[in-house]
Write a structure and sequence with these properties.
The protein has helices at residues 12-26, 39-45, 51-59, 84-92, 116-119, 164-183, 200-213, 226-235, 247-260, 299-311, 316-331, 349-359; strands at residues 2-8, 31-34, 62-67, 97-103, 123-129, 189-194, 220-225, 242-245, 268-272, 278-282, 334-335, 345-346. With 360 residues, the chain is an alpha/beta fold. The chain folds into 2 domains: 1-95 and 275-360, 3-Layer(aba) Sandwich (Isopropylmalate Dehydrogenase); 113-261, Isopropylmalate Dehydrogenase. The strands form 2 sheets. Strands 2-1-3-10-9-4-5-8-6-7 form a 10-stranded mixed sheet, with helices on both faces. A two-stranded parallel sheet has the order 11-12. Strand 6, helix 7 and strand 7 (220-225) form a beta-alpha-beta unit. The structure holds nicotinamide-adenine-dinucleotide. The site of nicotinamide-adenine-dinucleotide (NAD) has 22 residues, from loops.
Length: 360
Amino acid sequence: MKIAILPGDGIGPEIVDEAVKVLEALDLGIEMESALVGGVAYQVHGHPLPPATLKLATEADAVLFGAVGDWKYDQLERSLRPEQAILGLRKSLELFANFRPAICHAALAGASSLRPDLVAGLDILIVRELTGDVYFGQPRGHRTATDGHFPGSEEAFDTMRYSRPEIERIAHVAFEAAQKRKAAGRAGRVTSVDKANVLETSQLWRDVVTQVGLQYPDIALDHLYVDNAAMQLVRSPKQFDVIVTGNLFGDILSDEASMLTGSIGMLPSASMNARRQGLFEPSHGSAPDIAGQNIANPLATILSAAMMLRFSLNHESAAQQIEAAVQKVLARGLRTADIHSTGTVCVGTSQMGDAVVNAL
Ligand code: NAD
C-alpha cells in the first residue's frame, strides 16, 4: 500500500500532519510519500500541479489531500491558480464519484444552526458526479474571453451536458452505497436530485437513474427537484439516506448539508475512480484566516484517512478504529475552537491529533 501525501496550502500541512500521525499509530505498513501541491507548488515549481506530484498521485493507491488556495493567488491567471490542482487531479485520475457524508455526532448536535432534535443522529451520504455537467461542458464563453471565445462580447454562457454512460456509472455507485448502508442498518433509499421540470440534461438524468434503479429492487428510489431538495435538507434532513446528483447541484447541496452538522471542520470526503483509487480530503478549504496558529480542526482530515482505509486500502477494521477513536475524544469533551462550547475543553490542532492517537 502506497499513499501520496499532498498537504497543500493554508491549514493543509497542519491538519495532514495529524492524520499522518494517526495512520502511523495504526502501524499498517503503509508507505507514504509527500509532494507539493497548490500555491506552494506554484511558488517552487511555477505550477500548482507539477508533473512529479501528478506522477506520485497517479502511481499511488490513494491520495491524502489537505487543501489548496489562498487569496494572494487570486490575481494569477486561472490555469495557474492553486484550485486548478484539484481539478487536474480529478481529471487525470478520472475521479468521477464524490462521497460527502454529513454526519452529526450526537455530542455536537448543539453546534448546528438547526434545532438539535432535527440533526442529532443525522447520517446522510451525498454522492456527487464530479467530472461532467456545466463545469466541463463545451463550448464555454465569457466576455473576458480567457478561453478565446467571443472576445469583447457582453454575453457569457456555459453548457450543461451529461451522457447516459456518465449517469449510469454514478447511479450504480449510489445504489451500491445504499446497499452497503442498508446492510449496516440504514434505510436503503436513494434520492435522485435534478431539475427535470426545466432541463433536458435533468430529464435524461431522471430516466437513466430510474432504469438503473430497476437493477436494485432492494433499494427504494425517489426523485426530487433541486429547489425542493435544498428546502427539505433544512426542513427535515433525517428523511434522507443517500442523495445522488450532478456536479453543480451536488456542489451546492453538499455544502448545505455539511453545515447541518455544525462544523465544516468535522466532515471528510472521498473522490473515487472505477479502480478504487481515491483522493481523500476534508470538505473544507485551506482556511488561510487561521493557518499556522494550531487552532484548525484536524478531525475532517483524520476521518478522511479513515475513508481512505475503507474505500481504497480495504482496511475496514482500521477505518472503524479511527472513527471510534474520534467519537471517544468527542465524548470526553475535547473540542477545537470551531466546535468549542461551554462545558467542553478547548484544544489545539496537534493536541486533538494526540488525543485521537491516545484513544486508538
Ligand atoms: P474555507 O473552508 O477554507 O474556510 C471557511 C471558514 O471555515 C473559515 O472561517 C475557516 O477558518 C473555517 N474553517 C475551515 N476549515 C476549518 C477547520 N478545519 N477548522 C476550523 N475552522 C475551519 O473556505 P474559504 O474561506 O471560502 O476558502 C479559502 C481558500 O480555500 C480559498 O482559496 C478557496 O479557493 C480554497 N478552497 C479549497 C478547497 C480544496 O482545497 N478542496 C475547497 C474549498 C475552498
